[in-house]
Automatic annotation (TrEMBL):
<dbReference type="Pfam" id="PF25239">
    <property type="entry name" value="WHD_CHMP7"/>
</dbReference>
<feature type="coiled-coil region">
    <location>
        <begin position="219"/>
        <end position="293"/>
    </location>
</feature>
<dbReference type="InterPro" id="IPR005024">
    <property type="entry name" value="Snf7_fam"/>
</dbReference>
<dbReference type="Pfam" id="PF03357">
    <property type="entry name" value="Snf7"/>
</dbReference>
<comment type="similarity">
    <text>Belongs to the SNF7 family.</text>
</comment>
<dbReference type="GO" id="GO:0000815">
    <property type="term" value="C:ESCRT III complex"/>
</dbReference>
<dbReference type="GO" id="GO:0005771">
    <property type="term" value="C:multivesicular body"/>
</dbReference>
<feature type="domain" description="CHMP7 winged helix">
    <location>
        <begin position="129"/>
        <end position="202"/>
    </location>
</feature>
<dbReference type="GO" id="GO:0032511">
    <property type="term" value="P:late endosome to vacuole transport via multivesicular body sorting pathway"/>
</dbReference>
<dbReference type="InterPro" id="IPR057471">
    <property type="entry name" value="CHMP7_WHD"/>
</dbReference>
<dbReference type="GO" id="GO:0009898">
    <property type="term" value="C:cytoplasmic side of plasma membrane"/>
</dbReference>
<dbReference type="Pfam" id="PF25880">
    <property type="entry name" value="WHD_CHMP7_1st"/>
</dbReference>
<protein>
    <submittedName>
        <fullName>Bm5977</fullName>
    </submittedName>
</protein>
<dbReference type="GO" id="GO:0006900">
    <property type="term" value="P:vesicle budding from membrane"/>
</dbReference>
<keyword id="KW-0175">Coiled coil</keyword>
Length: 317
């Protein structure tokens, strides 16, 4: 956490008390409440500053080590945060997947979890996950292409993770954040024909649940093919330019045979460029057609909704 430690961290006397074991609440409620509040807040702030919603007790010990002092009773703090629903275990988070938020926390957290000494158990700080989800969604909306013809809502998950590394610390935190976005109905997760994870973000003009379709997988495949063609065209352009330079060099040296050889190389490269550019343009047109089809469907849906509302109004009169 570095400079994010509170001012009290520099006070040896106060920190000695806060680092000490927590007394049972019925013995000393003030001590219990003070330490619970302090360490719960420290955990929350550390998750935020580390951009990592996932932690273990061992990680917390390393974060909050103060000289030769370690915070006592972290297991009690963890139990309290489990009981209040501020955290859950990573395994439980995964198990409940898309429907776990709707089930509520407090109704079952306290009964399922006893005090734990398992320093390796991974916990998820849920408010941090929600913040990450907000930030990731805002990043998508502000940074990704808004050209409707190019279907910006279809995103390769691995590439999106790379773009989101300033928001989340690692892939594990990225995955739990995606689960939160899925729970909100902002994203659905599909796969390409070769098993790559693909995201489909909610289109603001669409209604109802997000559906993953074969067309969405095709969009991803076409993008991949277009990207590959772009790289190939650039490579061939460099090859053609180099062949032309070599041909000029041999012409200046009076070596017509070698000059002709490199001119033929240039011609072949330019022919390949033309072929690949034609392939690229065909794929681009297909992408644009898909985009226009989506727009037309949205316009038709709005028209139908308006017509139905108008008919309903007439029937009530």
């Amino acid at each position: 956490m570095g400079s994010k430690f509170p001012e009290v961290w520099a006070d040896d006397e106060q920190m000695s008390g806060l680092m000490s074991m927590i007394k049972a609440r019925d013995v000393n409620p003030n001590d219990y409440d003070r330490k619970i509040e302090f360490w719960s807040d420290m955990i929350a702030k550390s998750c935020d500053s580390e951009r990592n919603a996932i932690f273990t007790i061992d990680i917390l010990k390393r974060r909050f080590r103060r000289g030769d002092q370690l915070p006592g009773s972290l297991n009690v703090i963890i139990q309290h945060m489990l009981d209040t629903g501020e955290i859950t275990t990573l395994d439980d988070y995964k198990t409940r997947n898309q429907n776990w938020l709707q089930r509520g926390y407090k109704s079952f957290m306290g009964s399922l979890w006893g005090a734990t000494n398992d320093n390796q158990t991974e916990y998820v700080h849920l408010p941090t996950v929600k913040k990450h989800a907000d930030n990731m969604l805002e990043f998508f909306r502000s940074e990704y292409a808004v050209d409707d013809d190019m279907l910006p809502e279809i995103v390769d998950s691995a590439e999106f993770f790379e773009e989101c590394k300033h928001l989340v610390a690692n892939k594990k935190t990225y995955d739990v954040t995606l689960a939160e976005l899925v729970n909100r109905g902002e994203v659905t997760i599909g796969s390409s024909k070769i098993g790559e994870e693909i995201l489909k973000f909610r289109d603001n003009a669409a209604h109802g649940p997000i559906k993953w379709t074969e067309s969405d997988a095709s969009v991803h495949d076409m993008r991949r093919a277009m990207s590959k063609l772009e790289h190939e065209i650039k490579r061939l352009e460099i090859k053609a330019k180099k062949a032309e330079q070599d041909a000029r060099l041999y012409i200046r040296q009076g070596d017509k045979n070698h000059a002709a050889q490199y001119l033929r190389q240039k011609k072949r490269a330019l022919k390949e460029i033309e072929s690949k550019d034609n392939q690229y343009q065909r794929l681009l047109e297909m992408m644009q057609q898909l985009g226009r089809t989506k727009q037309n469907k949205q316009i038709l849906d709005v028209y139908k909704a308006g017509a139905n509302a108008f008919k309903a109004t007439l029937q009530r009169q």
